[in-house]
Amino acid sequence: MNNKNNFNVLLLNDLCSYGKASLTVNIPVLSYFGIKVSPLISVILSNHTAFESFCAFDLTNELERIVEELKKRNPKFDAFYVGWISSGKQPSIVIDIIKHFNINTILIDPILGDNGKLYPSMSNEHVNSMKEIIKYADIATPNITELAILLDKDPSKSYTEKEVEEMAKELSEIGPKTVIVTSVLKDENIGCLCYENNNIITSYYPKIDISIPGTGDAFGSSLLGYILKGDSIENALKKATKFIYNAVEASVKDNDDRVYGISIEKRLNLL
């Protein structure tokens, strides 16, 4: 870890021109911690996919050239955050980055689906690519749907907390030492279940029955921010979960436009 608290995170995700999600959420959250962010764009979208339509432009060729230029700068990155990647050559670019830059902390948010099914923009090729990349993660943050997809289980099924524990352990055996499963339901609560070194850590809050784009990106970014600043996995998990719950609660109270996405600029004070 960078002892000067001058942290630099390499961050690969999509960029939405309209709607709050992905990089437009990742960057302000990590910046709030005083962390420098070096963004890489996998795909440019007109808007995030919760809107009724969108167009997307794959930047694989441009990404490849940018990474080659980055190598010439010989930067030191304290962490690599991987979000939405395109299929094709992008998985191999991600693996090349991990191997070349010798980054201490690899956090992979395997963006594939939610609510029991794949996102419309995702294919089996995306799933297979993510299965390959997840082997290199130190920390993986799938939601319950993505966890099932990565393990070739039925994503539409409801899983008990005990079953989620076993599934998190199974994913950990593939690669990531720490698996944090989001969107886990327990009674009337929702939250996260973490598996690390045969230990289970949970953090639940009363379920607020709405869906706001960008909350997963805000969770992953705040989690990484707390970890880089020295929190244990347990403390970082609990702080990040609390942040998301408070942010969603505030969004409901303020009657924010839920389709547009999380109003992250107004919520940074909750970190």
Topology, element by element:
Blueprint: E1 8-18, H1 23-32, E2 36-47, E3 56-58, H2 60-73, E4 79-82, H3 90-101, E5 105-108, E6 113-114, E7 117-118, H4 124-133, E8 139-140, H5 144-150, H6 161-172, E9 178-186, E10 189-196, E11 199-206, H7 215-228, H8 233-253, H9 264-267
Parallel strand pairs: 1-2, 1-4, 4-5, 5-8, 8-9
Antiparallel strand pairs: 2-3, 6-7, 9-10, 10-11
Largest sheet: 9 strands, mixed
The parts where pLDDT drops under 50 for at least 5 residues are: none
Rg is 17 Å
- What is the 3D form? globular
- Beta-strand percentage range: 15-25%
Biggest sheet strand line-up: 3-2-1-4-5-8-9-10-11
Tally the beta strands. 11
End-to-end distance = 22 Å
Number of helices: 9
Give short descriptive properties of this protein.
9 helices, 271 residues, 24% strand, alpha/beta, nine-stranded mixed β-sheet, two-stranded antiparallel sheet
